[in-house]
Specification:
The protein is α+β, with helices and mostly antiparallel strands. The chain has two helices and three strands; from the N terminus they run E-E-E-H-H.
């Protein structure tokens, strides 16, 4: 690396709104605060809502599906 052109890369503490903290490296000086992390995000905790997808394909095909041409059956 070329000397003198890169920002300083230090260890920082990341603090989540849920209270979880972890250490990482960043060019940001000081502490980093975040609203959500892997300890409280629904995807990682297994508490995510399942979106009801039943009937969505049929609804799409009814709206945008290919129409039958005359003479085809």
């Amino acid at each position: 690396m070329k000397a003198g052109i890169h920002p300083k890369y230090d260890k920082v503490i990341v603090t989540c709104a849920c209270g979880n903290t972890f250490e990482t490296r960043s060019t940001v000086a000081g502490e980093i605060r975040t609203e959500i992390c892997s300890a409280c995000h629904p995807f990682f905790t297994g508490k995510q809502k399942i979106v009801d997808t039943e009937g969505r394909v049929e609804k799409f095909l009814a709206k945008y599906g290919m129409k039958e041409k005359k003479g085809e059956q």
